[in-house]
Each structure stands twice: as structure tokens, then as C-alpha cells.
């Protein structure tokens, strides 16, 4: 989880550059402070964050955390022994390990990053804790949660905002055993905790895993943001951003709110059938029901269009791709097509190699379509690799097929 969050914030820093402001991080249920120290593996905590607040209800754990940060010499970390539901940021963060109880607090100050590592399952009134986190998080902030869980796939019926359900189902025996096991330590594994988290925030990443070193305990990693999309323009609405993305998906002209009336006046008396993407239709339904948008809308790069991963036509492939690379020579395609900057290309994804070759000729847009979601997953991974990796790392993954540090 920490690595995923660090990658998100590194990307933001590179993107904003001159407008970069150091973020404020609140670690809820941080205990002994190990989580914050572990972040130093990915980011320089003392110089990267404006201030870090560890919030925990246990005085003994908070004391251990204070000793940890004193040993590390980090002056921008404060340990707060308080109920997470009542925590508010101080009006002006200090550069020292402040006495939180004697400073003034602000109802409007917001955190840029909130984390909960194996703490949400230990909070009895988790609804209030999640609501409090949603109020504390800034409009463009990020929340990361890692915790244990058990859940049946039946619970997820008709939800299109969970970011996928791969590996999420835990069978009846596992659900009964792990609930009974963790009940002894007053740890709640019911699926409602994760469900409410996904309802209150937009899902950027949702991954379900098993810790086989400890008997296969189910756990999840959630990276999210506010439900209302925060764009680059001043005060954009989610509806406006959805409209803009839909225009790109369908190759339709985008009517911005400022020019909308002028454009409409020109087309009075002319009936034009609107072409809407399935992603747009799903987004409108979710917005009208006060639900988060599908996960694809919250990504940094809108490469992927939302699809219903539960449909039989997609699940028939068993989450496996068929083609790892494309056999056809794309040079022949370009010789015949003579691709230019005005062209819009519609192509079968397959392994995506031809798609990537087309892009070097700078067409206006390329639409890659495949019934097998895994083929689109593979292309998305390749595009992400080109965006984030050096040539050597990219070649190890897709050329040699193995990278010793892949999970890092």
C-alpha cells in the first residue's frame, strides 16, 4: 500500500512541479509508528511531507511512537493520542512534536493523505470513522487502506464502482473460520467495512490478496479519493468531466458550459442522435444515485473505458490472455494506411503491439477493442510501462518475460 501511495504522490510532484506544495499526512490507528517509518523506503518523510500526524487511542502505543520519531530525529511528525472520529487538524502545523491538546484546531483544514493500516477492522464504530476521514480529506487528496476482510462474491452484485472483483470471493469455510479466529481479538472482518469505504470514496485501486505465510489470511489494499472528481479547472463538476471523457470516447465534439448555449442555438431545429458510451451511461446512473463513479474515471490516465467485468462474454476467458505479442508486421499496416495526425484508428487489441506502433505516427486517437479483458489489461500494462519505466526495465518485463524486482 505504501509503495502504491508513494507512486501516486511522486507522479503528482512531477506533474505539478512549480506549483508543488508539500502534503499533510494523517495516519489513523498508526500504533507504534512503524507505518510512517516504513514509508521512508519509498519517500523521504521528513522532507517530502509538510507535516505527519499519527492518531491512535492507545497511550502506550503512542509513547512507543514518540520514542521512535525522537530516535529518527523527524521534526515534522506529531503523535496524537485521540479517538480518530474526533481528530481535527490544528490551525497551523508546528515544526515540532507538538502537544496537540493545547493548540487550536480548524474545522476547515484538510489532509492530503490519509492512511489506515489494519486499523479500520479494529474500530467498532467504523461508519463514523470513515465519515470523519471523508470530511478530513482534501478534494484532491488520497486515502490508502490495508486490512483483513472476508466476503462473498454475492455481496458485490450490480456494483460497478469497486474496481474489479478478481480474487475477492472468500468461500464459506474461510469466512466462518477467519471471523471466529479474529473475533477473539475483537477484530471485525465483516465485508460491510470495506463496502462502506468503497461507497464513501472513489476507487483508484482495489486489490484482494492472501497472506499464505500466515495460513492464507485474506486482506485487501484500497487506494481511493473523494467521490467528486477534482479536475484541473476551477471547481469542475464530476458531470462536466464525465461529459468531456465521453466526448473523447465517442469522437463527439465536447460542448463546454461556457459555449454550450451558443452551440445549442446554432443547432435549433436540427435533430441529432446523441452517441453515448457505456461508461457515460454508467456514470450518469451512479451520479444520480449518489454513488462513486466506476474506477476508470478516477485514474491519472484515462486510457481505459469502463466495462462490466461480470458479464459472461468477458468472464468466459477465465482472466487469461491468449496473445502475449502480435505476430503481424505493423510496418505493412502503416505502408497501406499512411497514418497521419488527422486519423482516428479502430483496431483489435490482441497483444497491443500494433497499437503501440501506430502511436509513433501520432494519430489523433486510437481505439483498441477486444472482447477478452485480459488482452486490454496487457496493453494497459505495456502503456504504463512505457510511461513509467526505463528501456531496460521495460525489456526485462516484456522482452525477457521476467523482472527480479517486479513487485517493487
From TrEMBL:
A Pfam family that the UniProt record links to this protein: Methyltransf_23
Protein name in UniProt: Methyltransferase domain-containing protein
Cross-referenced SUPFAM superfamilies: S-adenosyl-L-methionine-dependent methyltransferases
Domain of life the protein comes from: Eukaryota
UniProt cross-references to CDD domains, sorted A to Z: AdoMet_MTases
Organism, as annotated: Emergomyces africanus
InterPro entries assigned to the protein according to its UniProt record, in alphabetical order: DUF3419, SAM-dependent_MTases_sf
Amino acid at each position: 500500500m505504501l509503495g502504491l501511495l508513494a507512486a501516486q504522490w511522486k507522479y503528482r510532484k512531477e506533474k505539478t512541479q512549480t506549483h508543488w506544495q508539500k502534503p499533510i499526512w494523517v495516519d489513523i490507528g498508526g500504533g507504534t509508528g512503524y507505518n510512517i517509518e516504513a514509508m521512508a523506503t519509498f519517500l523521504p518523510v521528513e522532507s517530502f511531507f509538510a507535516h505527519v500526524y499519527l492518531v491512535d487511542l492507545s497511550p502506550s502505543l503512542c509513547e512507543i511512537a514518540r520514542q521512535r520519531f525522537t530516535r529518527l530525529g523527524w521534526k515534522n511528525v506529531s503523535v496524537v493520542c485521540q479517538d480518530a472520529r474526533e481528530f481535527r487538524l490544528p490551525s497551523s502545523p508546528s515544526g515540532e512534536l507538538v502537544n496537540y491538546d493545547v493548540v487550536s484546531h480548524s474545522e476547515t483544514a484538510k489532509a492530503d493523505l490519509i492512511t489506515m493500516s489494519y486499523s479500520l477492522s479494529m474500530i467498532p464504530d467504523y461508519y463514523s470513522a470513515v465519515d470523519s476521514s471523508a470530511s478530513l480529506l482534501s478534494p484532491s487528496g488520497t486515502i490508502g487502506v490495508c486490512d483483513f476482510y472476508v466476503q462473498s462474491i454475492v455481496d458485490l452484485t450490480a456494483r460497478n464502482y469497486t474496481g474489479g472483483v478478481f480474487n475477492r470471493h472468500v468461500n464459506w469455510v474461510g469466512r466462518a473460520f477467519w471471523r471466529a479466529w479474529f473475533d477473539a481479538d475483537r477484530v471485525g472482518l465483516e465485508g460491510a467495512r470495506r463496502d462502506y469505504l468503497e461507497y464513501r470514496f472513489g476507487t483508484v485501486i482495489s486489490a484482494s490478496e492472501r497472506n499464505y505465510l500466515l495460513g492464507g489470511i485474506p486482506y485487501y489494499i484500497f487506494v481511493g479519493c473523494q467521490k467528486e472528481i477534482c479536475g484541473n479547472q476551477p471547481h469542475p463538476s464530476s458531470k462536466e468531466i464525465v461529459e468531456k471523457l465521453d466526448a473523447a470516447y465517442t469522437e463527439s465534439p465536447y460542448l463546454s458550459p461556457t459555449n454550450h448555449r451558443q452551440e445549442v442555438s446554432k443547432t435549433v431545429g436540427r435533430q441529432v442522435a446523441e452517441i453515448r458510451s457505456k461508461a457515460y451511461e454508467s456514470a450518469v446512473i451512479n451520479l444520480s444515485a449518489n454513488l462513486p463513479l466506476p474506477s476508470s474515471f478516477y485514474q491519472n490516465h484515462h486510457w481505459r473505458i469502463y466495462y462490466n467485468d461480470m458479464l459472461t462474454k468477458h468472464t468466459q476467458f477465465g482472466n487469461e490472455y491468449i496473445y502475449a505479442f502480435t505476430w503481424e508486421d505493423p510496418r505493412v499496416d502503416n505502408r497501406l494506411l499512411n497514418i497521419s495526425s488527422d486519423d482516428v484508428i479502430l483496431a483489435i487489441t490482441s497483444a497491443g503491439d500494433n497499437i503501440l506502433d501506430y502511436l509513433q505516427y501520432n494519430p489523433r486517437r486510437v481505439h483498441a477493442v477486444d472482447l477478452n479483458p485480459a488482452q486490454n489489461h496487457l496493453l494497459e500494462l505495456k502503456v504504463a510501462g512505457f510511461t513509467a519505466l526505463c528501456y531496460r526495465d521495460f525489456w526485462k518485463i516484456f522482452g525477457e518475460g521476467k523482472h527480479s524486482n517486479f513487485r517493487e
